[in-house]
């Protein structure tokens, strides 16, 4: 496995798109993003080539306009591919797949066996899981936008985003900005990050899922000490780490996430709170980026959306990686969410 990781790193360095990327821990935010993106591409290609002989599976679709059976390729075809056999509406509106009535599945995750398939959009009768996937995706995209919103001389180290608690009124990402220890964001800066988010979402990036081994995950995030510390714990169960790619941005999440960023509609990055740890905390300070969003096609008037944005400005009390902050929240258990 170590030889495989080394080969991947060497290929990335030799790739004509990445000739200037140094193979050190001192990468700029943009260089680290490019490097992870190339490693993701190479590993995805390697896994696809390892599928071997193509086997067929039956996918029994249940839903509009009618139930029918599709014959698809095992470990290759995805629910998104199935939707392409139906209509453009199915392709654009389906956020999640529901397999065999009880397993929520990413739209771009290959199917592994015979199954029944239901496509879930934002208007299904029981939207809880779709809503959670939507908020997790907003956090992922927030991390992507924060990584590109700052000037090159500002180091951006993404830490993590807690699992979504929709009652809190905001999606979040905890971010380390070591070169901005005393930053107080202005209204204009929040507006700029919001504009970056809107621009990114409108590009309609597909949200790709990939499981990788612990060693490769560590190699991909080796310049980020926060992710590097999290990966061994994540991989403890089965040696795997689940990654998602949106555009060129690669991050860690259990998922599932929605199909593509064009399914994100109106959005506002509402506040950024400074989280400070105690003197004995491993992490001294993080910034909690917060926002609120609606799925595409959901319309609210200005007054109603302003109520949501005002609520989303308040400090989200979800679990924090900083000890002092976590201790303060222990008395309010209902607000503590599992990490995404």
TrEMBL record:
SMART domains per UniProt: tRNA_SAD
One GO cellular component, as annotated: mitochondrion
Hydrolase recorded as keyword: no
CDD domains in UniProt: TGS_ThrRS (cd01667)
Molecular function GO terms recorded: aminoacyl-tRNA ligase activity; ATP binding; RNA binding
BP GO terms, sorted: tRNA aminoacylation
This protein's record includes keyword Transmembrane helix: no
Protein name: 39S ribosomal protein L39, mitochondrial
Threonyl/alanyl tRNA synthetase SAD domain location: 241-290
InterPro entries: Beta-grasp_dom_sf, Pro-tRNA_synthetase, Thr/Ala-tRNA-synth_IIc_edit, tRNA_SAD
Keywords: Ribonucleoprotein, Ribosomal protein
């Amino acid at each position: 496995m170590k030889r495989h990781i080394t080969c991947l790193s060497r290929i990335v360095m030799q790739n004509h798109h990445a000739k200037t990327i140094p193979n050190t821990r001192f990468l700029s935010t943009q260089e680290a993003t490019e490097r992870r993106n190339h490693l993701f591409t190479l590993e995805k290609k390697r896994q696809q080539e390892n599928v071997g002989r193509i086997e067929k599976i039956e996918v029994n679709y249940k839903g509009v306009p009618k139930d029918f059976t599709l014959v698809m390729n095992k470990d290759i075809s995805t629910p998104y591919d199935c939707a392409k056999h139906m209509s453009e509406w199915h392709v654009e509106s389906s956020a999640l797949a529901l397999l065999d009535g009880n397993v929520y599945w990413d739209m771009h995750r290959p199917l592994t066996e015979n199954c029944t398939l239901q496509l879930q959009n934002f208007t299904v009768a029981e939207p809880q899981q779709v809503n959670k996937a939507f908020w997790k995706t907003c956090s992922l995209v927030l991390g992507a936008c924060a990584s590109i919103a700052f000037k090159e001389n500002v180091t951006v180290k993404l830490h993590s985003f807690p699992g979504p608690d929709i009652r809190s009124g905001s999606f979040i990402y905890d971010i380390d900005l070591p070169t901005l220890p005393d930053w107080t964001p202005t209204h204009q800066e929040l507006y700029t990050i919001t504009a970056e988010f809107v621009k990114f979402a409108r590009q309609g990036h597909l949200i790709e899922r990939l499981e990788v081994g612990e060693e490769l995950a560590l190699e991909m995030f080796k310049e980020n000490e926060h992710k590097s510390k999290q990966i061994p714990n994540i991989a403890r169960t089965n040696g795997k780490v689940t990654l998602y790619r949106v555009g060129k941005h690669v991050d860690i999440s259990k998922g599932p996430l929605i199909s593509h960023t064009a399914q994100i509609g109106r959005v506002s990055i509402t506040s950024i709170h400074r989280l400070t740890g105690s003197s004995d905390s491993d992490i001294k300070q993080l910034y909690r980026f917060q926002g609120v969003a609606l799925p595409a096609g959901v319309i609210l008037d200005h007054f109603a959306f302003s109520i949501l944005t005002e609520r989303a400005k308040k400090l989200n009390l979800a679990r924090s990686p900083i000890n002092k902050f976590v201790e303060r929240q222990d008395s309010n258990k209902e607000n503590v969410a599992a990490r995404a």
